[in-house]
Amino acid sequence: MKNIDANGHVRGESLFIDDILTKQHSLHAVVFCSDIAHANNLSLDISKAQELTGVEKVIVAKDIPGENQIGGILLDEHLLAEDEIHFQGMPLAIVVAESQFIAKQARKLIKVNYNELPIITTAKQAHIKKHYINPARSFQAGKVNEAFTKCKYVFSDETFSNGQEHLYLETQGAYAEKMENGCIKLMSSTQGPTVVQRIAARVLGVPMHKIEVDVTRLGGGFGGKEDQATPWACMVALATHMLNKPVKLVLDRHDDLKMTGKRHPYESTFKIGLDEGFKIKAFEVEFLQNSGAAADLSPAIAERTLFHATNSYFIPNVKTIVHSCKTNLPPNTAFRGFGGPQGKYVIESAIAKAATELNVPAWKIQQANLLQENDKFYYGQKAEKVEANNTWIQLDKAININQVEQEIQAFNVSNQQHKKGMAVMPICFGISFTNTPMNHARALVHIYQDGSVGISTGAVEMGQSVNTKMLQVAQQIFSINADLLKLETTNTTRVANTSPTAASATADLNGKALMKACNALVKRLKYVAAEELSVGIDTIKLINNWVYINNEKTALNWKELIFKAFWKRICLTENAHYATPIINFDKGKEKGHPFAYHVYGTALIQTTVDCLRGTYQIDRVDIVHDFGKSMNLGVDLGQVEGALAQGVGWMTMEEIAYNDDGRLLSNTLSTYKIPDVFSVAKEIRVIPLETEGNDMAILKSKAVGEPPLMYGIGVYFALANAIKAFNPDYKIKFHSPMTPEKVLMGLYEETT
Ligand code: MTE
Ligand code: LUZ
Ligand code: MOS
């Protein structure tokens, strides 16, 4: 099935927040934010702004009727600053006016006074001062210290991976309308409608039933709207509540870049120990997560970093610890991979370090340590249906790794200005929210009396085509034409208490709930058909819009069956609930079975560096990816390619820069470079691994949203290898992104 949004998107007819036709008397809000990163004794003079013609109100913290608190995991974040400012871009006031233009004019008239305080911008500075969000988490297995003493080789080093801007095409935004009895309807570009509902209710001091959240679709989220769509929705809710008029707030790109958190930068130190056969026997890491000024989702992200610290490898003795370091940056947040990429970057750096020191190709160490069936992950889960080796072997069959290496060596011998480098990148990513209680979903299905169907789930469409997948699930079970099916908006009054669309698990969770609802309806309809046709219920089948008795088509079709059922007063609506079975995790012991299953894959990346300029290109990426039995290969290939491009951007060119004052320097698209069509790989080949699939995945089609981003990590090491081919003095530094500037310096660095 084609992506059901394709036509609307191409024709520009799909609706996003800024496309909603505002009602008469609608107002427009802009956010006045802090220009400095840390201060107290804040006072605002809003009088000049209030006086400007067309301004309805300048809203500040003391206007909030409920709690000025938007924290999710920890209650540590104000919607609007009270006495203290914690980061540059922190919202201080909301200006509401007849037009966005007037609101922006008024914003310039606000005067602010404060007492500036010293700031912290890096995780390491915070760590030294023991400035943390919450207590550290540590996982371990085996006996690490003892194991290191027995290792033939032990290496250690430091790594840094930078943040990443989500750069969803649609910036953050929301629109609020006041309904009767003090109720508010919010249209929000959020991955978490229930998060928005819960926090908006808290801010207004009303029960959740007074807030309805409706989401049509997002122009991209990538994790950036899992938690951080909430403040803007709360702001319009607040403004509507106070002013009794509809209010719209859509951040312009500059405000969005400045005010929102990003992927967490990590500074880490590792120690890796190997035996003479290059088996990794011990691994130890200390992760310093730069969490920013408030918790947001940082503790959960830190946890997933620990889960993925060993990537696709089996290591018997492991000890990891993560500190969520509190700094004066905007609170960093979920971003595709959710701390997993940061964890994997470190183990891959450790392997690259060992490979350099031992003068063997890294891929030989990688291959020697791949996870095998029934190995235990170091957090206790037994590895089942492991595809680490399979994807590696299939890749090697499709493109002989050894041969590629030799061709590259031959090329490098005979070329001076250009050098090539390759790297293999295996991935292993756990599917489920690591917080077990979040793994549930619901679906609501109405069959209307004319036979058409309306489907509601808790899934939010954000480009990943989850709506198409939901439609496919229903179509398969009802066995009717797709044009009879419609995906409704995601709305908290139809499907309540939802987990956000995240963790790549949305299609699994909501799809399974939808499947249950559809199956229950089919059972009811079969009963009607059996009665109508005077046969046993077990003989009835619904196939391609028709009722069959065993394999014989009857004269009864879907529409007539529905109409008959309606007149028989049969309920044509069903609501179903799904909660992932089996999973559990004991946070006391830090052991358990947190994931429904894992997604595997292996990529081979080839790059060429221009050794005069430091510029480079990715020649090709070959991937064998474990889709299970993909229910929509077009969609899933799109996810792999998009995620790869995003991973490549993170590892090569996207350079978030804050100055010592905590001011974002990369605050425009001229100073923050993301991959375009010229910088993605010249050739990408994605080969689906042939497997039986996994019953915990929807229709055996494995989750695909986040895992392939981590193939991009291989590009860092492929480039480092190309530099090494030109400059034998080059010492690989594990400091991403590998920008052309860094490549150039590496090409010409000398041993000191
Ligand atoms: N694909 C598109 N086009 N746009 C997005 O915002 N978000 C990614 C991924 N793919 C995203 C995307 C992230 S971060 C996640 S968690 C998953 O989609 C969420 O959707 P799923 O659970 O349906 O895979
Ligand atoms: N969000 C979350 C996530 O709340 N928990 C998770 O485990 C997770 N994993 C990936 C992406 N978002
Ligand atoms: Mo994705 S980081 O789980 O929104």
Quick overview of this protein structure:
Helix content is 29%, strand content 25%.
Describe the 3D structure.
With 752 residues, the chain is of the alpha+beta class. The mean pLDDT is 98. It has 19 helices and 29 strands. The chain has three domains: 6-117 and 167-259, Aldehyde Oxidoreductase, domain 3 (Alpha-Beta Complex); 266-434 and 588-747, 2-Layer Sandwich (Aldehyde Oxidoreductase, domain 4), CATH 3.30.365.10; 440-579, 2-Layer Sandwich (Aldehyde Oxidoreductase, domain 4). Strand 24 and strand 25 form a beta hairpin. Strands 3-4-1-11-8-9-10-19 form an eight-stranded mixed β-sheet, sandwiched between helices. The protein has a six-stranded mixed β-sheet with strand order 6-14-13-12-7-29, with helices on both faces. The protein has a four-stranded mixed β-sheet with strand order 15-26-27-28, with helices on both faces. The chain binds ligand MTE, pteridine-2,4(1H,3H)-dione and dioxothiomolybdenum(VI) ion (MOS).
